[in-house]
Amino acid sequence: MAEKTAPEHELGAVLTTIEQHVTRMLTGLPNSPTALRVRFGDVAVETEWTAPVAAAPPPAAPVRPTDEPADDRSLHVRAPSVGVFYRAPEPGAEPFVSEGDVIRPGQQVAIVEAMKLMIPVKSEVHGEVVAVLKANGDPVEYDEPLLAVVPVD
Predict the structure, then answer these.
(1) What is the pTM of this model?
(2) Across the chain, what does the average pLDDT equal?
(3) Residues 5-57: pLDDT tens digits?
(4) Ramachandran area for residue 9 (φ above 0: left; ψ -120 to 50: alpha; else beta)
(5) Which of 118, 121, 99, 125 is nearest to 108 (CA)?
(6) Rounded (5°) CA angle 16-21-24
(7) What does the pLDDT average to over 87-91?
(8) What are φ and ψ of residue 22, in 5° steps?
(9) Residues 6 or more apart from 51 whose CB is under 8 A from it?
(10) Is residue 66 domain-resident?
(11) Is residue 86 located within the same domain as residue 144?
(12) Backbone dihedral angles phi then psi of residue 11, each to the nearest 5 degrees
């Protein structure tokens, strides 16, 4: 008798949920782990690092010049995790968004890489990007502002 397996879309949804939970769990740890095992039923994923992951340097200064006044109406798109901020899907590619672009809720605007996981940064607001607050490759902390956005009606 053939073994029953979950349809691919269900497995993908389960793996995405696991990835999100594991990422949230790891961002709350005081030290970087050297090994990780995630098990779901008969499926297990194990990862081991031969050396502890180095601590991230302190956050870099915002890209916005200090003499530029902040817009009181601006909202922020924030980092979903501790990691490294990337403006484009791959090196050499055009950035997801730039200053002056209008973004919508659910639109991917950047990536945060955390322990080799590429976590999409999605907008929760509809508005115009008025400032990109981090440079490509900057380390970021959980909930740190990445983009300043002025809402559009």
Answers:
(1) 0.55
(2) 76
(3) 556 566 666 666 666 666 666 655 555 566 667 676 666 666 665 544 444 44
(4) alpha
(5) 121
(6) 125
(7) 92
(8) -65, -40
(9) 34
(10) no
(11) yes
(12) -65, -40
CATH number, domain of 139, equals 2.40.50.100
The mean pLDDT value for 109-115 works out to 93
Is residue 119 in some structural domain?
Answer: yes
In the block, tokens 């009606």 appear at 153
What is the count of structural domains for the chain? 2
- 86-89: Cβ within 8 A, 24+ apart: 86/110, 86/111, 86/112, 86/113, 86/136, 86/137, 87/132, 87/136, 88/136
Domain that holds residue 31: 8-48
Does 40 reside within a domain?
yes
Report the run of H or E that residue 12 belongs to, with start and end: helix 8-27
The verdict on residue 53 lying in a domain is no
Q: What CA–CA distance (Å, rounded) separates 73 from 152?
A: 10
> By three-state DSSP, how is residue 129 classified?
strand
pLDDT, position 10: 67
